Amino acid sequence: MTAFNPWEMACQQLDTVARKINLDKNIHQKLRHCKRSLIVSVPIQMDDGAVQVFEGYRVQHNLERGPAKGGIRYHPDVTLDEVKALAMWMTWKCAVVGIPYGGAKGGVVCDPRQMSLTELEKLTRRFTSEISIIIGPEKDIPAPDVNTNPQVMSWIMDTYSMNVGYSAPGVVTGKPIEIGGSEGRLTATGKGAMIVINEALQHLKLRPDQCTVAIQGFGNVGSATAQFLHEIGCRIVGVTDVAGGVFNPKGLDIPALIRHTKDSERHTLAGFDGGDHVNNPAKANEEVLKLNVDILAPCALENQITKANAHGIRAKIIAEGANGPTTPEADEILFRKGVFMLPDILANAGGVTVSYFEWVQDIQAHFWQLEDINKELTRIMVKGFRDVLDIAQREQCDMRMAAYILAVSRVATAVKLRGIYP
């Protein structure tokens, strides 16, 4: 079996849309390459006194439409090709919702679950110092991603500020509100996913209070998606995380489940008494994808829905809270099955949208009310959905192809207008 390579998948998606829109071959060639990739060594002294060296990456795919934007993840499986793919997907994500950013991504190969808070702080500060040559409020603005959070963003912001000699809150987004963060940022990806899911339900003439939902991944994105779908009346019947899964055909008590994961020592679903447990994570993830539900939201990692399991998916709607969870081969199968796909570059764009709001607030030193943030987020996500749907109906293609047509066309226009230097 050929190993999955996310960068090859990202390039394959670009190649497909390039053929569809007859993209200029020179622009296509430029978009197929990342602007810059930085690989750094991150040595830190562990709590036991030993020095351990981690490898870190920061990749900027394209800057034609504005400064780079993208999260930083801490995970043992991080690779340069994964980070490159995520940077490219960020370029398309920003373009599809009209946010004036280019795509970037970062990562460190580590297992944060095996590290103390002190070790994570050392790792973050040293990694920030190593990549400080290419990040900055006007250049590249990191954000939280897998296994990173507002505390990690605080350390990045403080380290960068110490290096430049003044407070620079605009260098990252996803910070605590007390040091320049934005209302609504922590749950923005999940709220944006709910908004486009609700638009899809209206389009398909389905009522939220009659819909069932399965969610793969119950971290920041998955739990917020569950929370907001629960609030509009959907019944969440299955969720999974690193510890396994919990299922209840009558519906899970989502507020109680979120409280449980926040209060429990390991911050997992383990021990929640409101449903049936599957304690094997691999088996749980397999089961949650095959549940007979109206909405399936993969909110974990990439490469979850493949040609090997796509035939077994029974959901009417798939909303990709994660980046790259569905392979191109699986896409074709799902399209033939009539599944309504809400692709990652649309479905999870709420995070980068409110990150943009946070960056604007930091630069202006003027902060918005949550009501205004939610109103503007809804406007942008609804417009993004309708723009993509219009293209899908006009071109008689699936929603992913439509989203890529919109995004790649916008970036290609910027490339053409700016030209090539010198």
Structural class: alpha/beta
The first-level CATH class of the domain at 188-342 is given as: Alpha Beta
Q: Terminal Cα separation, in Å?
A: 44 Å
**Per DSSP, what share of the residues sits in E-state strands of 2 or more residues?**
15-25%
Instruction: Note the run of SSEs as H and E.
Output: HHEEEHEHEHHEHEEHEHEEHEHHHH
- CA radius of gyration is 20 Å
Low-pLDDT stretches: none
In which range does the helix fraction lie?
40-55%
> What general outline do the C-alpha atoms trace?
globular
In short:
45% of the residues lie in helices and 17% in strands.
Describe this protein with a few key phrases.
422 residues; alpha/beta; Rossmann fold; 7-stranded mixed sheet; 5-stranded mixed sheet
Structure, explained:
The protein has 422 residues and is α/β, with parallel strands linked by helices. Among the domains are: 34-167, Leucine Dehydrogenase, chain A, domain 1 (Rossmann fold); 188-342, NAD(P)-binding Rossmann-like Domain (Rossmann fold), CATH 3.40.50.720. The protein is built from 14 helices and twelve strands. The strands form two sheets. Strands 9-8-7-6-10-11-12 form a seven-stranded mixed beta sheet, sandwiched between helices. Strands 1-2-4-3-5 form a five-stranded mixed beta sheet, sandwiched between helices. Helix 1 packs across helix 14, helix 4 (117-131) packs across helix 5 (150-164) and helix 6 (188-203) crosses helix 13. The chain starts with 5 loop residues before the first helix and ends with a helix. 51% of the residues are buried. The model has no long low-confidence stretch (mean pLDDT 96).
